[in-house]
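Exercise 7. Given the components listed, write out the predicted structure of the assembled complex. Treat all entries as one system.
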Amino acid sequence: MSSSRISGLCIQELQVEYKSGQVALGQVNLTLPEHGIYTIIGPSGSGKSTLLRAIAGLLPNYTGELLFNGKPVHDKDILVGLVPQNYGLLPWKTVHGNIQVAMKITGAAGGDKAEREARITHWLSSMGIADLADRYPLSLSGGQQQRVAIARAFAILPQIMLLDEPFSALDAVTREALQQIFLDNWLAHPATALFVTHDVDEAILLGQRIIILPAGKADSIEVLDNAAVFGMKHEEKRGSNEFFEQTKRIRKVMQEKW
Ligand SMILES: Nc1ncnc2c1ncn2[C@@H]1O[C@H](COP(=O)(O)OP(=O)(O)OP(=O)(O)O)[C@@H](O)[C@H]1O
Ligand SMILES: [Mg+2]
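Answer.
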């Protein structure tokens, strides 16, 4: 079968070098079915953000091919929602304004004004931040800004969602609450999601598959199937035997490749 006919996100022989000539991301070959959440872990500098940037179309130079349902990922009709590592909010726009602008730029602003307003309100409420609509990003805590960035990514109704350590600024309790909120929102709009995290537990709690990037750029990527944990009720995952087994598997890969 021709690779262009494979459905989902197909990453073929992707490699990135920045101008310095240093390899930022070794060869990546991944086929990720549509409507799944894939968590990505790897040591600092292993290329996690670079991988997301390449898919988001933010890198002018890379080699390899990126396809979504057989079409180039950067086609105009494929919407990609990105939650960058630094939130990427416009400081001169309110929370509401940030989402409005994103909808306008991506052409996701279909429907009439009332419908668009309802959509903004819906995603803000679902992230628990409806009361922050008129505030400016710099007046918000890191965790609040992360929620705005996630609401904004959902609001454009993307086919692909890229999240770069979206919960890194949160305390453990808030983090767990937001993991649940994220999963609930994702179920309502199951985009193909790549979710970068530093946290092994989070990778197991959220991912259908877990992608482990190695420290050495010539070393191979490990992909663990995590369907058993993914299928459980969120609150039952952490205490399960499968969760414990996955932790051990990941630790083993980390010992070998980090
Ligand atoms: N704009 C750039 N120019 C040159 N090199 C870069 C650039 N951005 C990243 N790199 C290099 O590419 C490699 C991968 O960086 P990247 O930011 O993708 O790592 P990461 O896995 O996201 O790390 P972290 O966990 O610290 O966020 C690093 O060696 C980094 O120094
Ligand atoms: Mg990064």
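Discussion: The pocket of adenosine-5'-triphosphate (ligand 1) is lined by residues 18, 20, 24, 42, 44-50 (CB under 6 Å). The chain has two domains: 3-78+159-257, 90-156.
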